[in-house]
Automatic annotation (TrEMBL):
Belongs to the cytidine and deoxycytidylate deaminase family. One of its GO terms (cellular component) is cytoplasm. GO terms for biological process: pyrimidine nucleotide metabolic process. The keyword Metal-binding applies. The active site is at 89 (proton donor). Residues 6-154 form the CMP/dCMP-type deaminase domain. Keywords: Hydrolase, Metal-binding, Zinc. This is CMP deaminase. It comes from the Bacteria. The keyword Hydrolase applies. InterPro entries: APOBEC/CMP_deaminase_Zn-bd, CMP_dCMP_dom, Cytidine_deaminase-like, dCMP_deaminase, dCMP_deaminase-rel, Deoxycytidylate_deaminase_dom. Its cofactor is Zn(2+).
Length: 170
């Protein structure tokens, strides 16, 4: 007899399954909205509907400069990010009913970035559960969620379903 999955694993598996729809060359991210063990929506990162995505038109990269503290010294670091895609959390908020988000849980493959965390903070959700950390914004996001009273949990021992991690993911 197989062991029944716990709810966190079950819904995070669904987020990873949603991520397989992504056509992003850099990372596939999925998110699901859950209320009372009921799935209310699923989304993934990608270009707006009807617009060529990164796999068709290439990434739309912009360069940014950030201050980064390394070994006690501030350094300017040049980074690239794609602005063609809408993040999974943003798509989830766009395509779910605001009433459904009240006191709901968002399961997401990756810890939300600062922008997505701000949007989730105003969405009415009560909890975020994620698997892969996003160290760049981790402390800021944790502080924001604490201020908002939103629980944020990292499931570091979770194992994604076979075949859901793309070769491009790091």
């Amino acid at each position: 007899m197989t062991t029944r999955k716990d709810w966190d694993t079950y819904f995070l598996d669904m987020a990873y399954m949603a991520s397989t729809r992504s056509r992003c060359n850099r990372r596939h991210v999925g998110a699901v909205l859950v209320q009372g063990k009921k799935l209310l929506g699923a989304a993934y990162n990608g270009a707006p509907m009807g617009v060529p995505d990164c796999s068709e038109a290439g990434c739309m990269l912009v360069e940014e400069y950030e201050l980064d503290e390394r070994e006690g010294a501030l350094q300017v670091v040049k980074k690239q990010r794609c602005i063609r895609t809408i993040h999974a959390e943003q798509n989830l908020l766009l395509f779910t009913d605001p009433k459904d988000r009240e006191h709901s849980i968002v399961y997401v493959t990756d810890q939300p970035c600062w922008t997505c965390a701000n949007m989730l903070a105003n969405s009415g959700i009560s909890e975020i559960v994620y698997h892969r950390p996003y160290p760049k914004d981790s402390e800021k996001v944790a502080t924001l969620m604490e201020l908002k009273g939103i629980i944020i949990r990292h499931l570091d021992s979770y194992e994604p379903p076979a075949g859901t991690l793309s070769a491009a993911q790091h």
